[in-house]
């Protein structure tokens, strides 16, 4: 059995994060960014349904944009679910990869989620093709990829979400507050300013990321040997 120390995992965390930051503007990372946008829109859709609403359509575009048209549901929670929901996807994926030996199972689970998203929610050709393609790729990874490959992919997706979401909040709600973002619609419908909602989301996002990294550091890495308890 492979044994991982917290320091080994911390080094891997730093290497993945460094690579993501260094290559952030590279076209090679566009599919990863679109996947996070898909998480964003899926979070809107799931919150709509969870609060009694109906999803009319969900679209994902190649320029890293997306939209969910819905009827009913709790508008406040639905609008708030996008950025924070996509961040939650990333945090959960990272923690699952960090503390479980079942990386292939989690890759397969994510593949099923994306496949169902394609079939149930997406209404444009690109969104359908991307969701289904990502589902097939993750399914193949789960079936034929080794434990290390599944672990690396899950951690990369999770960390990318943790990096992307705060940057996206700053870009969409603070530096470009004129955009018709979730925060702007929230301000129009419930009061306050776009920047206020953006700042609140940013604070929640940073706190969530901090808690996630702390939990990931505290829990044993998968494959780590448990420490022996001292006896009298």
Give a quick summary of the entry.
With 232 residues, this protein is mainly alpha-helical. It is built from 8 helices and 2 strands, in the order ααββαααααα. The protein has helices at residues 6-22, 30-50, 75-99, 103-120, 125-144, 147-175, 182-190, 194-218, and strands at 54-60, 66-71.
Write the layout of secondary structure elements.
Blueprint: H1 6-22, H2 30-50, E1 54-60, E2 66-71, H3 75-99, H4 103-120, H5 125-144, H6 147-175, H7 182-190, H8 194-218
Antiparallel strand pairs: 1-2
Helix pairs in contact: 1-6, 2-3, 3-6, 3-7, 3-8, 4-5, 4-6, 6-8, 7-8
Largest sheet: 2 strands, antiparallel
Give the number of DSSP strands: 2
Question: Which term fits the overall shape?
Answer: globular
Mean pLDDT: 90
Relative helix content: over 70%
Strand order of the largest sheet: 1-2
Strand content: 5-15%
Tally of discrete structural domains: 1
């Amino acid at each position: 059995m492979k044994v991982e120390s917290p320091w080994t995992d911390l080094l891997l965390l730093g290497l993945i994060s460094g690579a993501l930051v260094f290559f952030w503007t590279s076209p090679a990372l566009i599919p990863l960014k679109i996947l996070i946008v898909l998480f964003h829109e899926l979070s809107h859709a799931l919150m709509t349904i969870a609060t009694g609403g109906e999803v009319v359509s969900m679209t994902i575009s190649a320029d890293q944009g997306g939209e969910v048209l819905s009827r009913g549901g709790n508008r406040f929670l639905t609008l708030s679910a996008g950025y924070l929901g996509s961040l939650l996807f990333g945090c959960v994926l990272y923690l699952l990869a960090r503390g479980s030996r079942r990386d292939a199972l989690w890759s397969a689970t994510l593949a099923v989620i994306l496949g169902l998203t394609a079939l149930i929610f997406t209404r444009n050709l690109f969104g359908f093709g991307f969701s289904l393609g990502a589902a097939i790729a993750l399914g193949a990874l789960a079936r034929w990829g080794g434990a290390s490959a599944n672990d690396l992919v899950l951690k990369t997706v999770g960390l990318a979400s943790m990096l992307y979401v705060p940057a996206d909040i700053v870009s969409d709600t603070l530096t470009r507050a004129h955009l018709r973002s979730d925060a702007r619609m929230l301000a129009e419908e419930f009061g306050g300013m776009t920047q206020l909602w953006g700042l609140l989301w940013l604070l929640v996002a940073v706190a969530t990321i901090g808690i996630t990294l702390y939990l990931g550091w505290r829990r044993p890495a998968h494959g780590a040997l448990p420490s022996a308890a001292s006896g009298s």
